[in-house]
Amino acid sequence: MLRKKAVVPQKPVTEETQRMDRREYERIDLPATAFARNMVGQELGRVVDISGGGLQLNPAAPWARVYLTKGQQLVITIVEPTTGNQTDVAVEVRYIRSNCIGLRFL
Fold first, then answer.
1. Angle (CA) 85 46 72, round 5°
2. Which of 15, 35, 73, 86 has the fewest CB atoms within 10 Å distance of its CB?
3. Is residue 27 classed as helix, strand or coil in its secondary structure?
4. pLDDT in tens, 4-59
5. How wide is the angle at C-alpha 42 spanned by C-alphas 58 and 97, nearest 5°?
6. Residue 50's pLDDT is what?
7. What does DSSP say about strands 73-80 and 43-50: parallel, antiparallel, or unpaired?
8. Cα-flanking dihedrals φ and ψ of residue 57, to 5°?
9. Helices and strands, counts by H and E, the chain
10. 90 to each of 24, 25, 29, 61, how far by Cα in Å?
């Protein structure tokens, strides 16, 4: 008896699915309380999401976009005030936009 090969329906290729498919790591949304500081203690912005490859910030103030430059490597401190956890992380600035800053873990 011959069996037909099952056809698996494919998701339509859209800009969103292409963007999701290129990510190596899944992004995780963080609570509104997590934020990042530079090594001097100035707040860079709120951590919007994080993945195994990096994180995204909403800048705290316009100076944060001026302070950081694409390709810059630095150490930041991620702070979660409700638990008191603080973690120093080496990052590289991947992009800077008006409403977000992308950082890659080194």
1. 95
2. 15
3. coil
4. 444 545 555 555 554 545 555 555 555 567 899 998 999 999 998 888 889 999 99
5. 25
6. 84
7. unpaired
8. -115, 150
9. 2, 7
10. 19, 18, 20, 21
Q: How wide is the angle at C-alpha 52 spanned by C-alphas 48 and 57, nearest 5°?
A: 20
Res. 61: pLDDT tops 90? no
Domain coordinates of the chain in residue numbers? 27-105
CATH says 27-105 is which class? mainly beta
Q: Which helix (H) or strand (E) holds 78?
A: strand 73-80
Nearest to 53 by CA among 22, 84, 74, 77: 22
Angle at 13 between CA 11 and CA 17, to 5 degrees: 85
Cross-strand pairs, 46: 35, 58
Dihedral sign (CA 26, 96, 17, 31)? positive
pTM comes to 0.69
pLDDT tens track for 73-102:
999 999 988 888 898 999 999 999 888 999
